[in-house]
Design goal:
InterPro entries: Ada-like_dom_sf, Ada_DNA_repair_Zn-bd, AlkA_N, AlkA_N_sf, Alkylbase_DNA_Glycosylase/TA, DNA_glycosylase, HhH-GPD_domain, HhH_base_excis_C. The chain is α+β, with helices and mostly antiparallel strands. Helix content is 42%, strand content 9%. The chain has four domains: 68 residues, DNA Methylphosphotriester Repair Domain, CATH 3.40.10; 50 residues; 179 residues, no CATH class; 122 residues, Hypothetical protein, domain 2 (Endonuclease III, domain 1, Orthogonal Bundle). A hairpin with a 2-residue loop joins strand 7 and strand 8. Helix 3 runs parallel beside helix 6, helix 13 runs antiparallel to helix 17 and helix 16 crosses helix 17. The radius of gyration is 24 Å and the shape is globular.
């Protein structure tokens, strides 16, 4: 047993010496805490029985005796056991982890759905129904593996989001309560005291460094109305979303621009990018100010090894803040752990140097899974520029009904509206070949009929249902799994760039070479794609210009 963070999810139950899993025992946890190892932050939480607080393993405070330590796999488990967050190391401010994305079992699916706000949207009853289990069974499994119930996980998620809003915005506390998903101000106060040991009013207030937008335009009078502001002006929230350093901002910005859909995305004159967000209350937008981020992933990170990504959210209502934040985190892959990925790929002679050159490369996910699946079908066997054009036509023609979003951005395409059209109509309106129009219509019908492609979906079932659609092959299925299902191990073995880079001719051979990269084959693919495209661009740039011929 080493003191390195595991490459797979923890799966801890309680934190006693006898009940820890073989992959992560008490002694390893204690050595990590004693050494203040930041690589364990976000994966293990230290509860100190003598003080009643819980910390990150990297907390600078003097480490307690082993007999006073308990280790938990989540902050929610610490709170459920009666511990409060440490005021010094702020374990509530640690970025999330993608460990649960590497698993496809029921508990992992539940964690992903809770992270995306399922408890706020449908409650524990609705979540259990989605997962086809009883509430009792779901609660038992969650407590066994995570140490907290679904409701406790949701409460902790809300509390951590609320504290970030308290510290980074000027919103009134009542508005923050509803923005973070609490049903009432009283529930907000009780939960914050349980999580942090103090009332919300006693937490430090102040705007986040670098915030430029009004904290919440038009939010006066919203404290008693969870539906949002009384005025017609949409609420705006400027916040910094934390991620582990390094963060290759240039690479992910280039990726977003390359895949920007007209009407859904926009590049600003100052280099910032704006992206439409599909939220419960309507269409919102996220503006990312890339100029405030390090130009190079190699530049020093902020204290604590974290970087704050400046985002301004324009929302239909304050209650949409939490869903909007989660969409942006997924879009930018802010829960990735570069150190974990570097350790996983270090033994590989091909990937190790690629990761060393781009240690902060991320794997951006789809902001709207169904839109991405439809767009992937449209983009088959055509250039990226042509694909963007057709996807823009799709969004303009079939946007979900409702008022336009901020600055004219449109909602994602409505699969039901697409499915109602004939293949011939789709061919004419979008400029498609008939076979592709048929595939698009069939996929839209499946999505309208309940095919689930979000991060909480049953991945194997989704893959099987996609494969059954004529015109959708393995490459499309794996790309949808990678971006829409957020499966970090998805791997489109038939991709021409991957096969050319690896020097393989058959999918089976490509899969064999990639077997050692599990459970992060998706990140491996992202590094290989980026390296190939960069090398190609450099080769083109180094070629001498062709001599110009004067007109006759």
């Amino acid at each position: 047993m080493t003191d390195h963070p595991p490459a797979t999810p923890l799966g801890l139950g309680s934190a006693s010496r006898s009940s820890l899993t073989p992959d992560l025992d008490f002694d390893a946890c204690y050595r990590a805490a004693a050494g203040r190892d930041p690589r364990w932050d976000g994966r293990v939480f230290l509860g100190v029985t003598s003080t009643g607080i819980y910390c990150r393993p990297s907390c600078p405070a003097r480490k307690p005796l082993p007999e006073n330590c308990r280790f938990f796999p989540s902050a929610a488990a610490c709170v459920a056991a009666g511990f409060r967050a440490c005021k010094r190391c702020r374990p509530d401010a640690v970025p999330g982890t993608r460990d649960w994305d590497a698993r496809g079992d029921l508990v992992a699916r539940a964690v992903r759905r809770i992270r995306d706000g399922a408890i706020d949207a449908v409650g524990v009853t609705g979540l259990a129904a989605e997962l086809a289990v009883s509430e009792r069974h779901l609660r038992r499994l969650m407590i066994e593996e995570i140490g907290a119930s679904p409701l406790q996980l949701a409460r902790t998620r809300r509390a951590h989001a609320a504290r970030a809003l308290i510290e980074q915005t000027d919103l009134p506390l009542a508005d923050i309560a509803f923005a973070a998903g609490f049903g009432s101000v009283r529930q907000f106060g009780d939960t914050m005291r349980e999580e942090f040991g103090v009332a919300p009013s006693r937490l430090s207030r102040g705007r986040g460094a670098g915030s430029r937008a009004p904290a919440a335009a038009g939010t006066a009078g919203t404290g008693s109305d969870p539906a949002g502001p009384v005025s017609d002006a949409p609420p705006r929230i400027a916040i910094r979303l934390r991620t582990r350093a390094p963060f290759d901002a240039a690479a992910i910005r280039a990726n977003l621009i390359a895949h920007a859909i007209p009407g859904r995305d926009r590049v600003e004159a100052d280099g910032g990018t704006v992206h439409a967000l599909d939220l419960p209350g309507g269409t919102g937008a996220a503006r990312i100010d890339w100029s405030e981020l390090p130009a190079s992933a190699a530049e020093p990170a902020a204290p604590g090894g974290h970087i704050g990504v400046p985002v301004v959210l324009t929302l239909p209502r304050l209650a949409d803040a939490m869903p909007a934040i989660q969409i942006v985190r997924r879009l930018l892959d802010l829960d990735a752990d570069p150190a974990q990925l570097a350790a996983a790929f270090a033994p590989d002679p091909l990937l190790a140097p690629l990761v060393a050159r781009r240690p902060g490369l991320r794997l951006p996910a789809a902001r709207e899974p169904r839109e991405f699946a439809l767009g992937t079908v449209l983009g088959q066997q055509i250039s990226l520029a042509a694909a963007r054009t057709v996807q823009g036509r799709l969004a303009a023609a079939f946007a979900r009904p409702g008022a336009p979003g901020p600055e004219g951005l449109v909602a994602a395409p409505d699969p039901a509206r697409i499915a109602e059209c004939s293949a011939e109509e789709l061919r004419e309106r979008l400029g498609l070949m008939r076979a592709r129009a048929e595939t698009l219509r069939t996929l839209a019908g499946a999505l309208a009929g309940g095919l689930e492609l979000g991060p909480g979906a049953d991945r194997e079932r989704a893959r099987a249902e996609l494969t059954a659609i004529r015109g959708i092959g393995p490459w499309t299925v794996e790309l949808v799994a990678l971006r829409a299902l957020a499966d970090p191990d998805a791997f489109p073995a038939g991709d021409l760039i991957l096969r050319r880079t690896l020097g393989t001719r058959a999918d089976r051979e490509t899969e064999r070479l990639a077997a050692g990269w599990r459970p992060f084959r998706g990140y491996a693919a992202q590094h290989l794609w980026t390296d190939f495209l960069t090398a190609t661009a450099d080769a083109v740039a180094s070629q001498p210009a062709s001599p110009r011929k004067d007109p006759a």
